[in-house]
Specification:
disordered N terminus, alpha+beta, 4-stranded antiparallel sheet, single chain, 11 strands
Length: 239
């Protein structure tokens, strides 16, 4: 099939507000449309890029979920983040021109590939794009700080509560429910990300169910009491 026939322009994409700058002129929009070199489908379990591979592009996730992870010295998989539709992945490669983690699809996914040299070139001419790229990088730094706080000082309940609230907030920005979600990652992957053992993740979910805060049916989670989750996280400021 002709790749141009299946290409959906950024200007018509339903995720445009999430991964593109606002307030662009029609001419600027046309130029940004030209950024997307190809769309790639990634099967569940397949890798988008690997640690050590040369960095050439950023990827806007159109559909699906990814996890980024690092292999530790003892061979374990340390999850460093979860990314969903409308988010940009691959920023880790900018610093040293090679990727510093693996990006694996947690379900069948599709990404828009944007060559970084083209982004740099266009950023010099379209100020809104440059600001947007800086904003995305800044958001990533803030997120990293949040994870460091999670791993540094929070108890298991606080970590899991913060994780669920963050997921729901990001999904809500994409038009999904504020109280229901399907976990695309396993309990083990959540534990790896939050620095908790698998049993601790399961035990903490069970406690939330007993306390009437959430309902859990396998990977389906319904948050019954958002305020209770928030108060668990806010205890952190009182410690």
């Amino acid at each position: 099939m002709n790749p141009t026939a299946i290409k959906v322009a950024c200007s018509n994409c339903n995720l445009r507000e999430l991964c593109m700058p606002l307030g662009l002129t029609e001419g600027e929009l046309d130029r940004i449309d030209s950024l997307v070199a190809t769309r790639r489908k990634i099967k569940r379990g397949a890798t988008l890029f690997r640690n050590g591979e040369p960095f050439t592009a950023l990827y806007a996730i159109r559909t699906g979920y990814f996890k980024t992870s690092l292999a530790t010295e003892d061979g374990r998989d340390q999850v460093t983040g979860f990314q969903m539709a409308g988010e940009i992945i691959g920023l880790d490669g900018i610093v040293n021109d090679h990727h510093t983690c693996d990006a694996v699809a947690l379900e069948d996914a599709e990404v828009c590939e944007m060559p970084y040299d083209r982004i740099e070139e266009l950023s010099r001419e379209v100020n809104a794009l440059q600001r947007h790229v800086h904003k995305i990088m800044s958001r990533e730094i803030v997120r990293e700080h949040g994870v460091m706080l999670l791993l540094g000082s929070m108890r298991a309940e606080e970590r899991l509560a913060a994780f669920l609230l963050n997921l729901v907030q990001r999904l809500h920005a994409r038009g999904f429910s504020q109280s229901e979600l399907v976990l695309r990652m396993t309990r083990e992957e959540i534990g790896s990300y939050l620095g908790l053992k698998l049993e601790t993740v399961s035990r903490t979910f069970s406690k939330f169910v007993e306390d009437g805060i959430v309902e859990v049916k396998q990977r389906h989670i319904r948050i019954i009491d958002t305020e209770a989750l928030k108060s668990i996280v806010n205890q952190q400021t009182c410690h």
